[in-house]
């Protein structure tokens, strides 16, 4: 039946928007969306425009289902043709809000793109997004609230952990040297060096 379903979507692209528009995603069907959309991506049936529209729905997802929603994009990235990967990643590294589900998604997406071993520039976008969070500039606002600082530190820790999970990909000796220099510059004399 898969060939018939793919043919149906390919012959009638409007069916994708009607059936899988992303507006009314229910948690219990997230895995089905992942499976269907990854097959459509592998068959080159979903467009960059569709992916952009779907990504916009991350802004209205409830926090409890946000990570599951993000995993749809990880599934698409795993099967998407290489020439479309960077477009997807550029969307994903620019969320509406930086939060725990998004950082965890970046770790997963980084591993997925790393395992593909055909999209170094896309992987670098993910790694750089995590580096910005993992090693923030030390400018503190004059009236910092402790809760906000705790939340920020949690995100910093999550991003550092995510970086450690994906650091093995696209790592040559030259790249390792450059990363070490960058981390040394950002961390100074902290425990990392």
Please tell me about this protein's structure.
The chain is mainly α and 193 residues long. 68% of the residues lie in helices and 0% in strands. It is built from 10 helices and no strands. The protein starts with a helix and ends in a 6-residue tail after the last helix.
Quickly list its features.
193 residues; mainly alpha
SSE arrangement:
Blueprint: H1 2-11, H2 14-19, H3 30-42, H4 48-56, H5 66-79, H6 82-92, H7 100-116, H8 120-134, H9 146-166, H10 173-187
Helix pairs in contact: 3-5, 4-6, 5-7, 6-8, 7-8, 7-9, 8-9
What oligomeric state is this? single chain
Strand content: under 5%
Summed up, the helix count is 10
Order of helices and strands: HHHHHHHHHH
Poorly predicted ranges? none
What percent of the residues sit in helical stretches (DSSP H or I)?
55-70%
Spatial gap, N to C terminus: 56 Å
> How confident is the prediction overall: mean pLDDT?
87
The number of E-state strands comes to 0
Spatial extent as radius of gyration: 19 Å
Q: What is the approximate shape?
A: globular
Main sheet attributes: strand count, strand direction, barrel closure: none
Quick summary:
The protein is 68% helix and 0% strand. The protein has helices spanning 2-11, 14-19, 30-42, 48-56, 66-79, 82-92, 100-116, 120-134, 146-166, 173-187.
